[in-house]
Amino acid sequence: LVIIIIFYLYKGFLHEQSRPDRDNYVKINFENIHPDLAFNFDKYDSSVVNTVNISYDYASVMHYEPDAFSFNGRPTIESLQPNVTFGQRFNMSTIDILEVRLFYNCSSSGVTFSPMPTTTTGCIEFLVLDV
Question: Can you give the pLDDT at residue 25?
Answer without folding.
Answer: 96
